Structures are given as structure tokens and as C-alpha cells.
Amino acid sequence: MTRALEGRGAVITGGGRGIGQAVARALAADGAAVLVAARTAAEVERVALELHAAGAAAFALACDVTQEAGVSELAEEARRRLGHVDVLVYSAGAAASAPLERVTLEAWNDTLAVNATGAFLCARALVPDMAVRGWGRLVHVASIAGLEGARYISHYCAAKHAVVGLTRALAVEYQGTGVTVNAVCPGYVDTALVTRAIENVMARTGRSRPEAEAAILATTGQVRLIRPEEVAAEVARLCRPEAAGITGQAVALMSGAPAP
Ligand code: NAD
After folding, report:
1. What is the DSSP pairing of strand 136-141 with strand 250-253?
2. Within this chain, do residues 42 and 169 fall inside the same structural domain, yes or no?
3. Does 206 map to a domain?
4. Residues 92 and 47 in one domain
5. 81-85, 212-216, 253-257: range with highest mean pLDDT
6. Could you tell me if 52 and 60 are in contact, meaning their C-beta atoms sit under 8 angstroms apart?
7. Cβ(9)–Cβ(37) under 8 Å?
8. Which of 87, 161, 189, 248 could form a disulfide with 171 if both were Cys (CB 3.0 to 4.6 A apart)?
9. Dihedral of CA 164/235/185/247: which sign?
10. Cβ contact 209:198 at 8 Å
């Protein structure tokens, strides 16, 4: 435990479960006061309670990051609870898969909204104040699908490329202000999102769970699912003071190696 973020306020979107929950734990362990935000009230409240019980200053807010009003409320609540927001980790997201001809306009718009537009809204609401204060960290949880193409996820891939583009643009825009902007781009991570993808393959192909998981891993060349804590460790590294020189990076996380 470094306590490197003592005195810092951190907002984690999508913090109710999965990667966001692991990030909230990691940043709280580093001493940050955290506001955990996601759509499902019961999940964010559970995470905040757990962190609070472990001695952290932790707060929960149920909000929809695709709505401008919801993000304004998030920014207001974050400033009220944390005093100031120094770290924003955008981990809200959703994935769906379908061949191009079956991607509806609704699915396209929903996927872009949660994975890309919400990131823009949250950055716009919170990052300018970080620059005024002269210190800040923005980390987007993108995906390997933000760096390369893959079959049957055209909408997800487009959305994740958008958030990587946003990351690179904001890194340049905020260069020299003390605010760094980076993205982490994992392959498949062991969360509810991937469980749904595995179950989707099982339903469509009649494969067993291990076969479906192996088929999914084969698309990225992974030997196993990445653990959410491995992604969180990289996010936490990028948030620490010693990462001040790292900005505009899209860090790929792929598990070509056995679990650490
Ligand atoms: P998850 O489904 O476990 O968690 C997603 C979180 O986002 C939940 O807390 C959910 O409430 C929140 N969320 C969804 N829509 C929201 C909205 N409109 N407003 C507010 N919150 C919303 O998924 P995860 O695997 O933890 O994914 C987290 C991020 O990591 C996503 O952006 C995902 O695309 C990305 N990612 C996941 C994987 C993976 O394999 N699991 C791989 C690469 C990238």
C-alpha cells in the first residue's frame, strides 16, 4: 500500500462491479477518497460500504453517464462529497456483438453513448477544474477493441476507438497543465460483461462453457482471462504522482502469461 493518493478525490464511473469496482478498491488503498458511480444503486452502495468498512472515505451515486443532467449531478455530488476531484477513471461501458447486418441503429447509438459519449461528458464536467488546480489524472478503461478491429463488434470497436481518440486529443489539449490523460486497453477480463459474452456463444453455438471461453480467448490470442485486479493495478499506476510524465498513452493489457 503506497498511500500515494492521500488527500486526492477520485471518481470512478462503472464502479459498481467488475473492473470499476477493482479500480475503486485500488485507489482507496492508495489513500484516495472515492465516489463510486454507476447505474445500479445497490451495487455502488455495496462497494462504497465495503471501502468505508476498510477505513476509506467512500461515497456512492447511482447515475446514468450517458445523460448530460446525470453527469452534471455527478460532478456536483463529487465536489460536495470529495471537496475536489483530482482523478477520474471512466470504466462505465457495455458490449454487444452481432454481425454488421444485424447491428440496429439503437444498438449502435447505445454502444456509442455509454462507451464514448459518456466519457466525453464526464471529462468535460471534471477535467477543466483539475487543470485549474494544476494536478489531475484521467484514465479511460477502453479495450483492445480500441486499438484493433475484430469480427462482430463493429459498434463496440468504433466506440472504443472513439474513446482512445478522445484520450489522445485531451492529452495534447491538457499538456503542461499537470493533468495526464491515458487509456488502458485490456483484452478479455473476468467480469459479468465477459460472462454474458460466453453465455451468448454457448446459446448460439451449443458449445460448453470451457469451449465457449476458449473460443473467445482465441480471438485475441489470450491464454486466460485477465483478472479485474490486474487492470486496476495499471490504472492505479497511471494515477500515482510518479506517472506525471505518462500522457496520451493507450496501454494494451493482454494475458499471454499465466496468472501472477
Ligand atoms: P461490467 O458489466 O462488470 O461493469 C460495467 C459497469 O458500467 C457497471 O457498474 C454498470 O453499472 C456501469 N454502467 C453501464 N452503463 C452505464 C451507464 N449508462 N451509466 C453509468 N454506469 C453504467 O463490465 P466490466 O467488464 O467491468 O467493464 C468495464 C469497462 O471495461 C467497460 O468500459 C468495458 O467496455 C471495458 N472492458 C471490459 C473488458 C472485459 O473483458 N470485461 C475488456 C476490455 C474492456
Report:
1. unpaired
2. yes
3. yes
4. yes
5. 81-85
6. no
7. no
8. 248
9. positive
10. yes
Q: Is residue 105 part of a domain?
A: yes
Ranking 28-32, 45-49, 96-100, 127-131 by mean pLDDT, the lowest is: 96-100
**87 and 214 both lie in a single domain:** no
Number of domains in the chain: 2
In this predicted structure, what is the pLDDT of residue 239? 98
Annotated catalytic residue: which of 90, 156, 174, 188? 156
Asked if residue 252 is part of any domain, the answer here is no
Say whether 156 is catalytic.
yes
For residue 172, what are the contacts with CB-CB under 8 A and spacing of at least 6? Answer: 248
Between CA 57 and CA 221 the distance in angstroms is 40
What's the rounded mean pLDDT across residues 112-120?
Answer: 98
Task: Quickly tell me which residue has 445497490 as its cell.
Answer: 42
Instruction: Tell me which residues have their CB closer than 6 angstroms to ligand 1.
Output: 13-14, 16-20, 38-40, 43, 64-66, 91-95, 114-115, 141, 143, 186, 188-189, 191-194
Pairing of the two strands 9-13 and 58-62: unpaired
Q: Given pLDDT bands bounded at 50, 70 and 90, which one contains residue 258?
A: low
Which residue, among 4, 61, 78, has the nearest Cα to 236 in the 3D structure?
4
- The three-point CA angle 37-8-79 to 5° equals 50
CB 154 within 8 A of CB 96: no
Chain centroid to CA 61: 16
- Looking at residue 199, its pLDDT comes to 93
**pLDDT (0 to 100) of residue 257:** 67
Mean pLDDT of 120-145: 98
CATH of the domain at 86: 3.40.50.720
